[in-house]
Amino acid sequence: MSVPTTPALTVGDEVPPLSVRVTREQLVRYAGASLDFNPIHWNERFAHEVGLPGVIAHGMLTMALGGRLVTDWLGDPGRLVEYGARFTRPVVVPDDDTGALVEFTGKVAEIRDDGTARVDITARFDGRTVLGKAQAVVRP
């Protein structure tokens, strides 16, 4: 079996963008998979009581979608060497069939001597960044 190859990367190369609609149904599925049943992810009243604008997506779900941006581009999740991000703003998920649109972009920011590359990822919801310092180290 051959492993897909990624062409040589250069600083400034852009990763194809990814747009994902996060719905309440996805939050329920993610809660079940992650065992994170915090009511801020499913209970509107509770979310408001603790000062949130509404039910919010799990931060780790948002981060995972950013990782998907990179692994889809690479064609092989094993080429993702390292990935980290900070949660800067919540993704508020409305109680409708449309959900919340989260848009991901990425750009090669550094080529390292060891052959890996750093990709800076931007995640936006409602025009605002929701992940800070989202960076992936990849082996092309």
UniProtKB/TrEMBL annotation:
Gene3D superfamilies assigned: Hotdog Thioesterase
One Pfam assignment: MaoC_dehydratas
Family matches, as CDD domains: SAV4209_like
Residue ranges occupied by any MaoC-like domain in the UniProt entry: 18-107
Extent of the signal sequence: none
Family: Belongs to the enoyl-CoA hydratase/isomerase family.
PANTHER family (UniProt xref): (3R)-HYDROXYACYL-ACP DEHYDRATASE SUBUNIT HADB, 3-HYDROXYACYL-THIOESTER DEHYDRATASE HTDX-RELATED
The protein, known as: Dehydratase
Source organism of this protein record: Saccharomonospora piscinae
